[in-house]
Design brief:
4-stranded antiparallel sheet; binds zinc ion; 15 helices; alpha/beta; Rossmann fold; elongated; 2 domains; Isoleucyl-tRNA Synthetase, Domain 1
């Protein structure tokens, strides 16, 4: 099945076709670097990192650009609060952003362009917009004239007049129309400013994304992504700015993820109902947070609450333990024993089925919720088969080996590959000694060794494929809710 994605611009699921064969160019709006980012912001980063992984796995060569807004009112205000410069604030939180992104298991973008390093490109684009008659200058400010761009509102799915209703609050009297927005802002004293044809000033937020996406990806590229809150006005404005100059829509596919919610409200800095990503990652492995974010369809709202978090966390550790079981079983080579084995045949069919379903789910508008369901289904089957003490056959061994590599692949494409540490040598020695003791029916020694093994943070599971040492994980993300 070809990849289909929901396009906000057409409100339909469409078959994905790249502009250039084999290549995908995508742009995802990045952070305004005035603070650490919260897990609500992390949802977008994880969703689009996963999309990039899925595209790469399908064989596309992906160019991924994510901007960094490093000049903005919020940064300037933070600098005033902290009695430092906007530059210092932006530098500190840019570094923190990149560190936290890596901690989430997200690969860095191919480019993370900064607004302050693209002022000439931004000025050139504003000049072109003015030339084309879509912007006007008022005392050092430049405004985009929304009424001059016929298609304004199309992405958001609203008519200009409907949008106008909402815009009639605190209208800047210098604007010709309440919907007009700033491309360039005249400098105020003490604020970062650059020379421009309209006097000293700084760029508006929307124009930086148009200028930088076009610089790195061209006038018209494949995918533009971000959180649903960016559709209007940010993406509508980005598109208007670019299309008014090039005559082409900025992107072919616009993708937006739903909100992370707390008790039905969007998680946001302004509402104060947020947890910082770095604090959450102190409590749980990043794989749990990724699994949580991907456990719902990316366009659906997702509620961050103790119950949801606990269930995802338990699911992850159970999955990890099953992958440890397979790792331990597969580690010891086995000789071909020619035994007919129905269990192995049935389990292999299950592997094939779940894998097909997994791929189909990802191709269907990145349905990670269903894809994850298949990962769990396969892992649970393996767990059941082992718990039922199957015959130790070569066929079953081979099926376990194959499932192990499939589970590694499936968790890897979701960016949540569990880190499975090899069981330490001294522990393996104790396990071997315990097996010997059991053969000699020396139950006292066997029990003593088991206690020693569990004392080191492992659980022992006796199976026909040997005694497997599984890690006992003690982390609890639920603690953050206390
Ligand atoms: Zn943007």
């Amino acid at each position: 099945m070809p990849l289909r994605i929901y396009n906000t611009a057409t409100r339909k699921k469409e078959e994905f076709k790249s502009l250039e064969p084999g290549k995908v160019k995508m742009y995802v709006c990045g952070p305004t670097v005035y603070d650490y980012f919260h897990v609500g912001n992390a949802r977008a980063f994880i969703v689009f990192d996963t999309l990039r992984r899925v595209l790469k796995r399908c064989g596309w060569e992906v160019t991924y650009v994510q901007n960094i807004t490093d000049v903005d009112d919020k940064i300037i205000n933070k600098a005033k609060q902290e009695k430092t410069t906007a530059e210092e604030v932006a530098g500190k939180y840019t570094e923190a952003f990149l560190a936290d992104l890596a901690a989430l298991g997200c690969e860095p973008a191919d480019q993370h362009p900064k607004a302050t390093e693209h002022i000439p490109e931004i000025i050139a684009l504003v000049e072109k917009i003015i030339e084309k008659g879509h912007a006007y200058v008022v005392a050092g400010d430049v405004f985009f004239s929304v009424r001059s761009f016929q298609e304004y509102g199309k992405l958001f799915g609203k008519k200009i007049d409907e949008l106008e209703e909402g815009a009639r609050v605190n209208v800047d009297v210098r604007k010709k129309d309440p919907l007009d927005f700033a491309l360039w802002k005249a400098a105020k004293s003490g604020e970062p400013a650059w020379d421009s044809p309209w006097g000293k000033g700084r760029p508006g937020w929307h124009i930086e994304c148009s200028a930088m996406s076009m610089k790195y990806l061209g006038e018209n590229f494949d995918i533009h992504g971000g959180g649903a809150d960016l559709i209007f006005p940010h993406h509508e404005n980005e598109n208007a700015q670019s299309q008014s100059v090039t005559g082409k829509p900025l992107a072919q596919y616009w993708m937006h993820n739903g909100y992370l919610e707390i008790k039905g409200e969007k998680m946001s800095k302004s509402l104060g109902n947020f947890w910082l990503t770095r604090d959450v990652l102190q409590k749980t492995p990043f794989q749990v947070l990724r699994l949580f974010m991907l456990s719902a369809h990316y366009r659906s709202p997702l509620d961050f609450n103790p119950k949801n978090v606990e269930s995802v966390q338990n699911g992850y550790f159970e999955l990890k333990r099953t992958m440890e079981r397979l790792h331990e079983i597969v580690r010891h080579p086995m000789k071909d024993d020619f035994l007919a084995d129905d269990t192995a045949g049935a389990l292999d069919k299950e592997r094939q089925f779940t894998y097909e379903q997994f791929e189909q789910a990802l191709d269907d508008d990145l349905n990670t919720a269903q894809a994850i369901g298949q990962v769990f289904r396969l892992a649970n089957k393996v767990r059941q088969v082992i718990a039922n003490r199957p015959k130790k056959t070569y066929q079953l061994y081979l099926v376990f080996q194959s499932i192990q590599s499939y589970l590694l692949d499936m968790t890897n494409v979701l960016g949540m590959l569990p880190e499975i540490q090899p069981v330490p040598d001294d522990l393996l020695k104790m396990i071997a000694e315990r097996n010997e003791a059991r053969q000699k029916k020396d139950w006292a020694l066997s029990d003593q060794l088991r206690d020693q093994i569990t004392g080191q943070g492992y659980a022992l599971e006796d199976t026909p494929f040997g005694s497997l040492a599984l890690t006992e994980t003690k982390t609890s993300l639920q603690e953050i809710f206390r």
